[in-house]
Amino acid sequence: MVENINILLVDDVEYSREILRSAIISCIDDNKFPIRPHFFQTGDGTSVIEIVQHRNIHLIYLDINLAAITSGLDVLEGVRKIYKDLEVVMCSSESSSDNVMAAIKNGANGFIVKPFNSGRVSDTLKKYLLKNKLISD
């Protein structure tokens, strides 16, 4: 059985969102994950909560360095106040230990460094699928 999942991509760079979207689709196909993704995208963090509420989002890939009013860490904090169990994977071109630790401390379920690595993207999808019992280990 194939499960529909709604994935929200949050990055201020449209090209980065498209690369990540393509990487997710490739990982699903390559690993034969039993999911059909439906993608939603935004270039800033101000609409994330609204999108999650109205689109029944299951998984968020969130850039840590948004150029708009709010940072990815602030968005993560806001998401966690309302959605404690929602899977959120942080993304950044900066892999400093400070970024990773801040993301994990604020409740991120994972961290991916840009440019996106298909193995790392696949790991985040597999973790989501295992957590939701859509695949077995």
Automatic annotation (TrEMBL):
Q: Which UniProt keywords apply?
A: Phosphoprotein
Domain named Response regulatory is located at 6-129
Q: Which InterPro entries match?
A: CheY-like_superfamily, Sig_transdc_resp-reg_receiver, ST_Response_Regulator
SUPFAM superfamilies per the record? CheY-like (SSF52172)
Gene3D superfamilies the UniProt entry points to: 3.40.50.2300
Residues with the modification 4-aspartylphosphate, per the entry, are 63
Q: Which Pfam families match?
A: Response_reg
What is the protein name stated in its UniProt record?
A: Response regulator
Q: Which organism is it from?
A: Paraglaciecola aquimarina
